[in-house]
């Protein structure tokens, strides 16, 4: 037995909105055998645009029963039935949520007439209920009302059962099918072709814009996890409605997937990604020439479009580095903004310090240049060689002078011993501190994967 359901609501997600009307048609597989319809007092104001769409006003529901008052009757109609609706996850999420608030646990198999229509009646210009009814000459005398839409959906369902020559309804109901949990507009074929490998996946909307980017150790398993559960929040409901297509890029390793995800989020700026979209500027070591001609070093917050000579994760890390350079190269703590008071300079050459004009700019600047040169060459240059996507290839990530250069795939037989030859096989990508720190941490944890380059080879 099928329960064909339509509801009208005060908004688009269940946990913050109420039901204003519900219509149920019980269908025995051939025809409707019982009908139920009632207005419901949602306990809140009905927004004006919904009043205009449905014709249901606050006055109409003022004397209607609350959902809790009709919950038992609705539960008895729906239990042990297959829950059918046009965009079933929307109606089911509302009904299940409000039944649970009334103390009833609904757990039904579901069928979506949007998904079934796309399979059984392919090639139509639109699969909205109104346009399907117009195209198929299905009458709907009470559009955007629960009873009228439930009746029209029941007639559509009868037609789908007659036209289902390939058994799509039966396949959708099989326990392992899980088709009923998929977004209404997402073809199941998109899920079927996903690989069980590490990589990055993309959710596209109706205009093929990327609205979400994710990474996974197992692409298929991770994508399917998005569609499990019964989260009734606004963002999830909108997210599910907007997914029309899935694409993906396979990666050789989990690390490659993590890096590529960060790159793609910053390139595409997808609507539903929140993490990794914020600034990751951290702190940096900067150099500039003051009015007297002295080169100054300073640690400051990184700003957009700024290029520090060294990036650091915190002010403490930057100051520690700067104090080491002061001691090692005889720099002035005042000119490096480490000593900010007006007391006598505490530097290693306080008696002849540049801050008092006892050292010529050219002489002091040469020491700063030596410090920066040493710092640059102390930064690691190495490749991370790891598993590839195929048995005869390896993945490779290149860090050059402490900065992420790029990544790609090389032959299993490729000798990683020349920087320029390696770069020809890799794709350069924009880097940031998040990627750099992630790769450095991985290299520290797995030193056997590192291929080091000494400065002479790195510049050859």
TrEMBL record:
<dbReference type="GO" id="GO:0045004">
    <property type="term" value="P:DNA replication proofreading"/>
</dbReference>
<dbReference type="GO" id="GO:0005829">
    <property type="term" value="C:cytosol"/>
</dbReference>
<comment type="function">
    <text>DNA polymerase III is a complex, multichain enzyme responsible for most of the replicative synthesis in bacteria. The epsilon subunit contain the editing function and is a proofreading 3'-5' exonuclease.</text>
</comment>
<dbReference type="GO" id="GO:0003887">
    <property type="term" value="F:DNA-directed DNA polymerase activity"/>
</dbReference>
<protein>
    <submittedName>
        <fullName>GIY-YIG nuclease family protein</fullName>
    </submittedName>
</protein>
<dbReference type="InterPro" id="IPR000305">
    <property type="entry name" value="GIY-YIG_endonuc"/>
</dbReference>
<dbReference type="InterPro" id="IPR006054">
    <property type="entry name" value="DnaQ"/>
</dbReference>
<dbReference type="GO" id="GO:0003677">
    <property type="term" value="F:DNA binding"/>
</dbReference>
<dbReference type="InterPro" id="IPR036397">
    <property type="entry name" value="RNaseH_sf"/>
</dbReference>
<dbReference type="GO" id="GO:0008408">
    <property type="term" value="F:3'-5' exonuclease activity"/>
</dbReference>
<dbReference type="InterPro" id="IPR012337">
    <property type="entry name" value="RNaseH-like_sf"/>
</dbReference>
<dbReference type="InterPro" id="IPR013520">
    <property type="entry name" value="Ribonucl_H"/>
</dbReference>
<dbReference type="InterPro" id="IPR047296">
    <property type="entry name" value="GIY-YIG_UvrC_Cho"/>
</dbReference>
<dbReference type="Pfam" id="PF01541">
    <property type="entry name" value="GIY-YIG"/>
</dbReference>
<dbReference type="GO" id="GO:0006289">
    <property type="term" value="P:nucleotide-excision repair"/>
</dbReference>
<feature type="domain" description="GIY-YIG">
    <location>
        <begin position="196"/>
        <end position="274"/>
    </location>
</feature>
<dbReference type="Pfam" id="PF00929">
    <property type="entry name" value="RNase_T"/>
</dbReference>
<comment type="subunit">
    <text>DNA polymerase III contains a core (composed of alpha, epsilon and theta chains) that associates with a tau subunit. This core dimerizes to form the POLIII' complex. PolIII' associates with the gamma complex (composed of gamma, delta, delta', psi and chi chains) and with the beta chain to form the complete DNA polymerase III complex.</text>
</comment>
<dbReference type="InterPro" id="IPR035901">
    <property type="entry name" value="GIY-YIG_endonuc_sf"/>
</dbReference>
